[in-house]
Design a protein that fits this description.
The chain contains five helices and six strands; from the N terminus they run ααβββααβαββ. By secondary structure, it is an alpha+beta fold. The protein has a six-stranded mixed β-sheet with strand order 1-2-3-4-6-5.
Length: 131
Amino acid sequence: MRIERLSYIFPWTEGIFRDCLRVNYTCRVAQIGAAVAGYGIMSVAPGRHTCSMCVSARISAAWRRQATAGAPASGRRQCRATDAFLEARPSNTSAIRLYQALGFVQIGVRRGYYQAVDGREDAIVLKRQID
């Protein structure tokens, strides 16, 4: 929760995280030594999975890029997924650049998906085939 609250203006609630655990989403924590450095949550369905990832802002930029690189492959191992999907705010250009570098391409936009300071913000929907 600490990483979530420090990373987002409108963080997920504890209840959302509890619901992810309750319905058996795949949830992982990344550690550096004893410190929690980030987390990942995957909703896995036959042929596809959707990820939510967050790496602590206190971690170096180079490590942040490496920390998220393995998420699409882990979905493939878990349920033989062929596609991975992500969503990102258009204002989160560093995440979008990372996802594109990992082979994700934009396939759509969800209008007004995210809560924002001045109302709502769209979500860019990205997809990557998992090979």
